[in-house]
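Re-running NAD-dependent epimerase/dehydratase domain-containing protein to confirm reproducibility after the cluster update. Everything else is unchanged from the original entry.
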Amino acid sequence: MKILITGGQGFIGCHLVDNFLSKGHEVTVFDRHYEEKKWEEYGWKNKVTFQLGDLKDRDSVFDAVYHNDIVVNLGGLLGTQEMINNPIPAIEVNILGALNVFDAIRMHKKRGFQIAVGNHWMNNPYSITKTTAERFALMYNKEHGTDIRVCRGMNVYGERQKHRPIRKIFPNVVIPALLNKDITIYGSGNQVMDLIYVKDFVEILSRIILIDNIPNT
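Result of re-run:
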């Protein structure tokens, strides 16, 4: 299968690329920038196709979708507290960009996948916009007969996860501990949080994406 992954150079995306390659699929990464160091580190050169584009650019999205069998939309603007004072860019990328992907999937009759957030109840621009995109995906399935699968994931951790600029719970606890520095505790410190290892998570995603005749849920 020819599989397009938007945001394929990101933390989850890069592991999903590796997963699909291991199963013999042809993978194209759609992104705004080519990160050469990552491609060298991950061994992608001559194995993965790169297509320059922006989710906000409808024409580039439609062109990329047309040339593939499956479209995995992992692209998006990250951040929680970082975007509270200016949520407009998150709306433009995470909602309007996703709608460009969904419209292309609908027009070209492709199978799609939309990543969703586990903390959909939180009132920050990232959670709000990603949850809105999730609901639009389900609406497209109901109203237009598309096949856009949705999966929520929360607190994924593992290799290649960045410590900054976007703060993530696992590296923000583990890295200070490794450096023998103080660990910042938020709230009471008695909270319980579920975590999932990134390679386990992308294996789940790949099975959801590749299986035929899955119900539109």
